[in-house]
């Protein structure tokens, strides 16, 4: 089954404790992206990757890191989480050709206390 | 920068009736893609329908159709014969494509379906 998976689905952590949210896709997509969703703000892009070893900042990159060592994986790293990073996070992937449809993971609910 | 505006934070519709969700966007480009995503309580983002800007014909997927007005930069979603399972947040999104694959989302419209 074609899918994007994220782990963990739920995470409660404390300020400053490094964490990683994993994202994996099995569709051989070149493009991968991370979004955060906050009430009243819709989804905003954090980081994206055009292909292996190619990453770039989205609209809200502060406090986050990413890496793309393999085509299928695109982990999101919070090295020192803060309460304002409490949010719902989505990973998405697509081909770099029309119709550019992005497939989303199930989401990760992160709470930073 | 592109912006997407959904002017209706919440809407409701009677079961079996028709409802239209509004979306406008701002861009100076001529070739782009528009999407409507549905987010039910499960939080999963589900693609409902897409429209390529170069296509004049409005996209249709079963009970879902769009009214794409390129000159007015408007992309509304019509849901016919509304069902209880249509209750969800709906997000309009814009994508430039070909070199920039970023989805720009509106803030969403919460749709309630009244039995």
How many individual β-strands of chain A?
11
Helix content of chain B: under 10%
What is the approximate shape of chain B? globular
Note the total helix count of chain A: 0
Chain pair sharing the greatest interface? A-B, 26 and 21 residues
Q: How many alpha or pi helices of chain B? A: 0
Structural class of the helix and strand makeup of chain A?
A: mainly beta
The SSE string of chain A, one letter per element, is EEEEEEEEEEE
Enumerate the spans of chain B where pLDDT stays under 50 for 5 or more consecutive residues: none
Q: Calculate the terminal CA-CA distance of chain B, rounded to whole Å.
A: 41 Å
Features:
heterodimer, A: 113 residues, mainly beta, seven-stranded mixed beta sheet, 50% strand, globular, B: mainly beta, six-stranded mixed beta sheet
Description:
The complex is a heterodimer of chains A (113) and B (115). Chain A is mainly beta and 113 residues long. Chain A is 0% helix and 50% strand. Chain A has no helices and eleven strands. Chain A has strands spanning 4-7, 10-13, 19-25, 31-38, 42-51, 54-57, 65-66, 76-78, 87-94, 103-104, 108-112. In chain A, strands 2, 4, 5, 6, 9, 10 and 11 form a seven-stranded mixed β-sheet that branches. Chain A starts with a strand and ends with a strand. The mean pLDDT of chain A is 95. Chain B is mostly beta strands and 115 residues long. Chain B has no helices and twelve strands. Chain B has strands at 3-5, 10-14, 19-21, 24-26, 33-39, 46-52, 60-61, 64-69, 74-79, 88-97, 100-105, 109-114. In chain B, the strands form three sheets. In chain B, strands 2, 5, 6, 10, 11 and 12 form a six-stranded mixed β-sheet that branches. Chain B has a four-stranded antiparallel β-sheet with strand order 3-9-8-7, with no helix packed on it. Chain B has a two-stranded antiparallel ribbon with strand order 1-4. In chain B, strand 7 and strand 8 form a beta hairpin. Chains A and B meet through strand 4, strand 5 and strand 9 of A and strand 5, strand 6, strand 10 and strand 11 of B.
